Amino acid sequence: MDNASFLCYSSFCPSKNASLDKPQRVFHLIGAYSVPLFPVLSQVLQISSAGLFPSSFKTKNPLFWNTWAQSTLKNALTLQKLNQNTAKNLILFLGDGMGIPTVTAARILKGQLSRQSGEETQLEMDNFPFVALSKTYNTNAQVADSAGTATAFLCGVKANEGTVGVSAAAVRSQCNTTQGNEVTSILRWAKEAGKSVGIVTTTRVNHATPSAAYAHCVDREWYSDGEMPAEAVQAGCKDIARQLFENIPNIDVIMGGGRKYMFPKNQSDVEYPGEKKHFGTRIDRRNLVEEWNNRMKNKNAHYVWNKKELLSLNPNSVDYLLGLFEPGDLPYDLERNNETDPSLTEMVEVAIKILKKNPSGFYLLVEGGRIDHGHHDGKAKQALHEAVEMDRAIGHAGLMTSIYDTMTVVTADHSHMFNFGGYTPRGNTIFGLAPMLSDVDQKPFTAILYGNGPGFKVVNGLRENISTLGYEENNYKAQSSVPLNMETHGGEDVAVFAKGPMAHLLHGVHEQNYIPHVMAYAACIGQNRDHCMSSSGASSLSAALPSLTALLKLIHLLC
């Protein structure tokens, strides 16, 4: 039975099962016919949100929950046949600071943006069949930073906080500990295997997460030589922006912010010519963008700095793309200029269109980097909207690729001191108040709270009364227990969602550095190639082994 018949049967054909009301007819149909239950349930939920089912029916009728659970069970049983294909393509979506409470709150927000209650909504990553937990600690830190974690999930080696692309033998800010301690990333492994590679981020392209894909640096804040101590420059250490263009030749796609680190000191910015904070920072007077353009001549390469230029490109005629859309980080999605700044989804779409032209496949790193920044500022609304936008990009990437030859992994580098609670009722706006007053100070509080951060405020010796504040505004700083100028990371495990070839290898609880090893194994790149012999080659070898053994025995006897 097709979906059209299902909808006719359930909604518009009262003559069938006339004794049942509409909701009962739907569930009667599901129980009576062998139809794919996930598409059906999706239709049911959509119809429900449109008003066919009263809310009370959904939540009070056990048939709803039993049917949904049974459909989930049947789908889970199909996973017994594992996808053991070789992954032609690899995509890693990294939600910076996207701990499990952030995932849950983003799910609710996504639903509420569609005028639903929110709790029952599914994020794109929720639909991935395999989920694991990742232990995020750095080699010298119980609660990690984004540099050491990026080295783990990109290079396969745990490292010290504040360092990128180097092992734990390297010491932060000590230039002379760099050489000999470099570790390479899965992006390099993919490039060396003949795949196209790309980096897309909402932060600076030389920020902690993306930089671990190509740089070897003992200090994550050495964005350009203008941020480095003179002795480090003199000792021969390279800034991260320079390494972006020199370490891995011809990265196919680079998109994000960080424009000012590519231009000579005091050179005005193309978009903000009068603002000194956006001027170039390079003391060596190099223009890295100009150098890239000169080197990439006659290679179908394009440099763009705004959305209009990006979307005017024909990806079929672009082999290399450098897009630097802001002097620093890209703006929060809620504050994005839709005319000049591309969304994460738009950048991902262009990246995949360019990269997928390679018959050998591609590796793409996508970072929703400003989730982290929103949390650090105590601005939960900014952080959660960033997470929802990344989820949209995940869904779009899924439409452009296939689970049969593309392994997609979604995870976080670390969590935050963010949470929500307070016994809020179903459908309570995620940014709203808890339904009760504090039984200590008799004041209201929001469901969302931080363990520490800039939202701590005392008025006349007492906790601030938030009832007169705009606690649902974009830049409202949620209350925190401990006063800090910047909220801190959290130390708990983070989720890893996976789909596609070999995704089942991401299960249980793992060290964070396990992730790139699994992805490399799935794609037969890096050090994981022994299992990649074709089935015909393997069978030929099997057939030859007895003869080879017999030959060796004969030689032994003759000798």
Automatic annotation (TrEMBL):
Domain of life per record: Eukaryota
Main location: membrane
Cofactor note (record): Binds 2 Zn(2+) ions. Binds 1 Mg(2+) ion.
Its membrane topology: Lipid-anchor; GPI-anchor
Active site as annotated: S146 (phosphoserine intermediate)
Keywords associated with the record: Cell membrane, Glycoprotein, GPI-anchor, Hydrolase, Lipoprotein, Magnesium, Membrane, Metal-binding, Zinc
GO molecular function: alkaline phosphatase activity; metal ion binding
Catalytic reaction annotation: a phosphate monoester + H2O = an alcohol + phosphate
Listed InterPro entries: Alkaline_phosphatase (IPR001952), Alkaline_phosphatase_AS (IPR018299), Alkaline_phosphatase_core_sf (IPR017850)
GO cellular component: plasma membrane; side of membrane
Binding site for Zn(2+): D96, D372, H376, D413, H414, H489
Names of required cofactors: Zn(2+); Mg(2+)
Localization of this protein: Cell membrane
Binding site for Mg(2+): D96, H207, T209, E367
EC number from the UniProt entry: 3.1.3.1
Gene3D superfamilies the UniProt entry points to: Alkaline Phosphatase, subunit A
EC supergroup of this enzyme: hydrolase
Family as reported in the entry's similarity comment: Belongs to the alkaline phosphatase family.
Assembly information from the UniProt record: Homodimer.
PANTHER family assigned: ALKALINE PHOSPHATASE
Name listed for the protein in its UniProt record: Alkaline phosphatase
Gene coding for it: ALPL
